[in-house]
Amino acid sequence: MARVTVEDCIDKVENRFELVLLASHRARLISQGAPITVDRDNDKNPVVALREIADETLSPGDLKEDLIHSLQKHVEVDEPEADVPEAPPQAEPAAEQAAAPEAEEDVVAFDRMSEEELLAGIEGLVPPEKSDEY
User: Fold this and answer.
1) Does 33 score more than 80 pLDDT?
2) What is the SS3 assignment for 58?
3) Model confidence, pTM
């Protein structure tokens, strides 16, 4: 019986770390009952997973997508936005127009801070005091 080595699989997945991730994910799927695409030949699940990758019976891209999907905790569903007509702009009273520039100045803008100002702010920070409670 020929042993599956990393060299057999490295042509399909260039990064060895990614290969280990994909093969271990596939081995877990096999242990959960997923059908295998090669003969088992009395091999354990990690060897079967490597043989599947080496024989290209499974696409590494599909395995990678499945791995990413299994690790996600929140999956956003892309739904088409409803075509809602925009309301025509309303004229603002003169008092609101005058107050608008002041409101913009109150907003903190991080992108306007220079590097020197940022460093000066960081240097002014004081570490928290140690207490005996912890």
Assistant:
1) yes
2) coil
3) 0.52
